[in-house]
Amino acid sequence: MRRREFITLVGGATAAWPFAVRAQQPVLPVIGFLSIGSREADIDRMNAVRRGLAEIGYVEGQNVAIEYRGAQYQHDRLPALAVDLVSRQPAVIIVVSTSATLAAKAATNTIPIVFSIGADPVQLGLVTDLNRPGGNITGIYIQNTGVMGKRLELLHEAVPTARAIGYLANPKSAIAEPETRALHEAASALGLELHVLNATITKPKSILP
Fold this sequence. Notes:
Shape: elongated
CATH class of the largest domain: Alpha Beta
Number of helices: 6
Order of helices and strands: HEHEHEHEEHEHE
CATH superfamily of the largest domain: Response regulator
Strand content: 15-25%
CATH topology of the largest domain: Rossmann fold
Number of strands: 7
Mean pLDDT: 81
Strand order of the largest sheet: 2-1-3-4-5
């Protein structure tokens, strides 16, 4: 072999070597995390996910990757973020608000979705039954909406002279309508006047559903 041919062959092999090494590296399974909030606000939840994964032998960066998407409390950003997350082909998507869950459901009907929400998932059409969710979605129902009437009852007991009650609602939240409806029903039963005030909170200290 001539000297020039040898140099060309070695040079080409050396240039291709990093690509070959990367091709041989295993692709880590991806866990998606979709939130209405921000990475800073979700740090405790993210750490809880990491601890739970570690308990079953998964360590971020070693044998699993976590893809985070946060809407920065802008509800209209969630659909695009959900589609982007689905494009990463995660093994599962974790969602921590009602709005994020609805966005994830619209983006995929095959990737498993695990939620933590305050609204009734059956009423929202997320699952068919609490005991047998069906489909690709399951999770935890905190029952915020289900106890709205009880909260109003407790407030009425604490301040029985109050006849008009104000409720501050986020109109962009997916649970605003069912919560407001539940409060109106409870207020009517108690003979109270309910005033609903709409306000959009852009930078809360904690995640709002």
